[in-house]
Amino acid sequence: MDDWTPRTRAIAAGRPHGPGEPLTTPIVATSTFEAGGDAVYARSDGTATWAAFEEVVGSLEGGTAVAFASGVATLSAVLDSLPVGSTVAVPSFSYAVTRGALKHAQQLGRLTVTELEPTDTQAWLDCDADLLWLESPTNPTLDVMEIETIARGTRGRVVVDNTFATSLHQQPLSLGADIVVHSATKLIGGHSDLLLGVAVAADQDIVDELRAARTRVGATPGALETWLALRGLRTLPVRLAEQTRTAELLVSRLAEHPAVTKVRYPGFGMMVAFEVDGADAADAADKVCASVRLIRPATSLGGVESLMERRAWLPGEERVPPGLIRFSVGLEDPEDLWRDLLTALG
């Protein structure tokens, strides 16, 4: 398997083998197992469906994966390993739920949290935090962080949220990170029909920590959700390649549109952010989001359908430019998407 490409591993890893075995991993819907085997109870021992999903993700990221009930459950498990009084650094522009969870922990006196500009690499090297939570590209401003420089130049545990890039564009463990996390709800699942999270580590002690945290709080993934995420993961390479091609085309055209003042694109992937012009930028962006017909005005990202929203309306996103629209590029025909954007931009 090591000599297979990521595209092949996404298809071939985590499948049953042997005469009479099913070609695809089935949904194993059970909470408990008959005594005498390796598994006793699903909450602590998992199921074959979990194992298959975790094998594929781990293979793509270069470590051992642990699945969780949601991306937020994954975040909570990572933070659960920190002793009271630990220090955490997080990008000032990053997923609002991550910063919200850290803010809550700080209000409770559990953690001390510092927000740093994502692209100020020296500030990250100087911060001396116990845990550095990196996100690259960042949500929603799509800043790219210097993961390897930070990971190899600091003493703290380094976690990288790889939801936007996916393992197909970067493998943070190979760059020195300790843990990689994904909201599998997004690109991995790819169809906007499940909630799931996953963390990956190369160090077995960290893997054991993550599994213990999952069991302790009962943040276990559902049988159907895990199976759906595994099925979605099989097509991630081809979906992302096509979405990326469309994103690149639309970015080049948006950059030339007179109503667009700035386009943010990291040079890879299917996430785009752009800012619109107008005396009231927030109102102008709201009108764009309300005027699209094919693109859906909704939160979340990574599905086969294109979604957009003005991010600054969300609590905790007050620093985001008021006219910034986050655009998750789907699998629709790019010309249909462009016509929809033209109509909405006016």
What does this structure look like?
The protein contains 12 helices and 12 strands. It has helices at 6-12, 42-45, 48-61, 71-80, 96-107, 121-126, 147-153, 204-217, 223-234, 236-254, 281-291, 334-345; strands at 64-68, 86-91, 111-116, 131-135, 157-161, 179-183, 197-201, 260-264, 271-276, 296-297, 307-310, 324-328. Helix 1 runs antiparallel to helix 3 and helix 3 packs parallel to helix 9 (223-234). It is of the alpha/beta class and 346 residues long. It is globular. Strands 1-7-6-5-4-2-3 form a 7-stranded mixed sheet, with helices on both faces. Strands 8-9-12-11-10 form a 5-stranded mixed sheet, with helices on one face.
Residue runs with pLDDT of under 50 for 5 or more positions: none
Oligomer: single chain
Number of strand segments:
12
Sheet with most strands: strand arrangement: 1-7-6-5-4-2-3
Write down the Rg.
20 Å
Count of alpha/pi helices: 12
